[in-house]
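Final paragraph of the annual report: two paired records, presented back to back.
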Amino acid sequence: EHITFKARGAPGQGCSVFENSTQAGYQGPPPHIHLDQDEDFYVLEGEFEFTAADRTLRCAPGAFVRVPKGVVHTFENVGEGVGRLLVVVSPAGGFEAFVEEVGEPTREKSPPAPPSGPPDAEMVERVTTVASKHGIEILPPPSEH
């Protein structure tokens, strides 16, 4: 993912807005829950499939998806090219801190290629640990339930 913050609220107040760009085939973040933040997605470009709770929606540009805090969700770029989402998290704070801790700053303008294989166990453990510090619960793969 390539995340560009557009506006940032004070932690615990207001909201933060960012653009999330992904390449075709990007399978999205693992299913996860924001314990303290609502997350809203507006599709700017491309085609995405969102799964929230037990519902899956295929969305084209102009679609809006709201995921209240406490709801398990994920998304995938199912289009043929770069997909872009405008994302709003409220209240501000947790997600942004998570991105700053696990992300890597870049000057690139386009999103990276999707991973060619599964993430290594060390990376999964690191992301899961950092996420929990910032009010995000990453769920284990279905085979580990």
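The closing record of the year follows.
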Amino acid sequence: LFSVNVPTPEMTVKIAERISEQYLKQNFPFSVFLEGGLGAGKTFLVRKILENLAIKEEITSPTYTYVNEYNSNLGEIAHFDLYRIKNDQDFFAKGFNEIAENEDIACFVEWPSKISRTTQGCFIGKKYKIVIKFGIGVGMRTISFYEVN
């Protein structure tokens, strides 16, 4: 849908607003898969999107809890970090498919490559992918936003 160079955190905030307003609010529930290296800004971007979706509580990284759940005026939102997931069996053993398959919960998924494309298919709603790549220069990023079939 778009790809943009992002030189500052303030620009990332504007991208988060654009994604929330133009795509996610109209397509609840949705699933957003985020790809990018360690420290690329995946959690920062999700935090800014969640703030734009009127999450009032503190938004923290789910790195050690695997998933954090929030209530918004649109409905429930789950934020997954699959970095420490070993494989599909691990994903199912933890019962994460129950959240992914729930038609009342929108999902953000960091590190979706830790599970197979088949398992990624468990996530419901309109699907999007965000790819964050490090750019040239300190703090530079490229954020690409796609619709996924």
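Residues 26 and 80 are 21 Å apart (CA to CA). This concludes the annual technical report; the extension proposal builds directly on these records.
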